Amino acid sequence: MAGMDLRPLIQPGGKIVLFVWDGLGGITSGPNGETELQAARTPNADRLAREGVCGRLVPVYPGVTPGSGPGHLGLFGYDPIEYQIGRGALEAAGVGFDLQHGDVAARLNFCTLDAHGRISDRRAGRIPTEESKPVVEKLAREVREVDGVKVFWAPVKEYRALLVLRGEGLGDGVEDTDPQKTGVAPLAPKASDDSAASARTARIAAKVLQKAHACLAGQPKANGVLARGFAMRPHWPTVTERFGVKAAVVAGTPMYRGVAKLVGMEELPACNEVAKDVASVAAAWDKYDYFFLHYKHTDKAGEDGDFKAKVHYIEEADAAIPAIEKLGPDVLIVTADHSTPSAMKAHSWHPVPVLLWAKTVRHDRAERFDEISCITGGLGLMPSEHLMPLALAHAGRLAKFGA
Amino acid sequence: MAGMDLRPLIQPGGKIVLFVWDGLGGITSGPNGETELQAARTPNADRLAREGVCGRLVPVYPGVTPGSGPGHLGLFGYDPIEYQIGRGALEAAGVGFDLQHGDVAARLNFCTLDAHGRISDRRAGRIPTEESKPVVEKLAREVREVDGVKVFWAPVKEYRALLVLRGEGLGDGVEDTDPQKTGVAPLAPKASDDSAASARTARIAAKVLQKAHACLAGQPKANGVLARGFAMRPHWPTVTERFGVKAAVVAGTPMYRGVAKLVGMEELPACNEVAKDVASVAAAWDKYDYFFLHYKHTDKAGEDGDFKAKVHYIEEADAAIPAIEKLGPDVLIVTADHSTPSAMKAHSWHPVPVLLWAKTVRHDRAERFDEISCITGGLGLMPSEHLMPLALAHAGRLAKFGA
């Protein structure tokens, strides 16, 4: 089933809350052959499952494990295969850098260069954040502008950082400078397309990296940088343009805020404490039609391989449901961007459970909110991308198609 | 959900065995209202179903009954609507003729011509293979080359045979010579497109058929030939190119070997005795990532309308499972290319049951391997084409998509 342009059907309607329990899905790996969600006590989600309709979402494509960006884009109604974010732009989102249209962002690795300028370590001894942060701050002080283009540097984590160029006429057709091996010098940034903008950006990036190397000359480990994934902020239609909703994001982690802002959601205060984050939704309740509320800890516990912790955090998220219900949403959805089974200590391709509560649902036989019960759910097994039109429909926001 | 290019995600991983029980699916037609698979005792497949994840595959499109070619292409991850094989090329695959790129193949019917050269029987009295084979051999001896183009003739079955032209600059835009009625002469081969290659091929085919008619002049029944479905070997990307697996086929019947070879699988010894065919997989275990093991007898019994025989052969295939498990595959799949209900004595459009066993599955409530239990399976109802990415994922062969 290909995508559908819903714009001609948009009409005013009720309020929608999308409550994402990051990495929620698991595999049957618990002490009694259950998933984390089956092991958890989730009286509120179970009640919503009984009163609502359930199903399972395929985030990107069968068998494909999504990163956080594609996983969320699907939930927002954007086909993640069609809407791909360049690495640099995603990194900017990840650290909360407010990338403007026209900016060019790149991911940086600090590296170690020998006396001949050849790379001896592509990750600068994997220096910890405490060591790399002062180095980034030094770059930010000393390399601030080249040929009228503003230069921004931001720390990411350990040996990784972000570079952003801001100025007129930039392009992102620029090749990586990381040769992907040691014993050779970093590559010069080279234009990868024929545009004047990319050629200019490659020239400026070369000067920026030259200045950076001069600035880092005295550093013991991080005396060089390698740039990858040059990318601009994509020109995407917003959720308001595509779906007619004024939308807000409440997410304590910069990456999720960043992705939501790429599709036009406005940022509300958030801190990764679920009660406070729900209060942030409540405080702005009258101003928006659609709230994306993100809960991070479930994914973290999955990545850590900690079954018990994941169960605990699922229960914590469940306990936040009544406070959301109290706001009176017309549609309340609980689901995930992808699975993160603690047995795999990583994201996975397994479908994610979804429940949609609304007064207009047709019930099904799913009596509990978990991966296995949801197989019998009325929503079936569908691409994440189909969730947004269903949310709009249950909120009365889509008019009849055809007479 | 349109197709997805998985190549950027390919990484090394575990071994996959695809065990195809040809024509496995049935309809509820047994003495107790059961399918052949429900009636069969399949302790091994049932155990794999409990330990794995189940579902159902739609081979081509809902309601569409697949031939053997499309049915298998779907299982190999090729959308059978996009990847269509010309009739001549499929016939070449079916008789194990090793069609080269540049060859043009056509299906032949022997026919009976009257004294005026008009067709009196389009199938030459449906002569049996014993009668047609010597006629084909006579053609192969006497019509071997025309204008520098090599000519090959191969028997197929009864009144059917295969013609292959091999030479420089051939094309397959050539119309059938079968007028589809009696009382008229065979049509002359005519180019169906504007290419020089097709025009040349039509001219050569005309000469070849003229020589064939001269050669067959004395035959009592098969004194003429009609050519249909001129086609070249398609230029398709291989499973190695698309999915990163080195793949082998073990199939005792030429057709299935032929289709597998069109997508780049290498041929291993096979004889349609399942224990020996499994041994053939075992002997090459270290050399390949992906094994397609074909079991024919289930389809044959279905085509014969023999419910009991189909049950028997399902049980025979099931008994071969432990020997495959002993090899230690990371992913073991049991499924079919299409349904062949014995009650219908023919292929059908009904979805086929599938089980996927791997250590990384999420279980479901399917406790038995049969068409009805599989409705509750975690894989849901999906196009056959989605099976390959899921097999790759469960074998750890697909990296994360996006960050």
How would you describe this protein?
The structure is a homodimer of 403-residue chains. The first copy, chain A, has 403 residues and is of the alpha/beta class. Chain A contains 13 helices and 14 strands. In chain A, strands 10-9-11-1-12-13-2-14 form an eight-stranded mixed sheet, with helices on both faces. In chain A, strands 3, 4, 5, 6, 7 and 8 form a six-stranded antiparallel sheet that branches. The longest helix of chain A has 21 residues, at 196-216. At the A-B interface, helix 3 and helix 4 of A face strand 14 and helix 13 of B.
Keywords:
homodimer, 403 residues, alpha/beta, 8-stranded mixed sheet, 30% helix
In short:
The structure is a homodimer of 403-residue chains. The first copy, chain A, has 13 helices and 14 strands.
What is the CA-CA span between the terminal residues of chain A? 22 Å
> What profile does the largest beta sheet of chain A have?
8 strands, mixed
Q: Which chains make the largest contact?
A: A-B, 45 and 31 residues
Q: Please state roughly what percent of the residues of chain A sit in beta strands, choosing from under 5%, 5-15%, 15-25%, 25-35%, 35-45% or over 45%.
A: 15-25%
What is the number of helical segments of chain A per DSSP (H or I, 4+ residues)?
13
Shape of chain A: globular
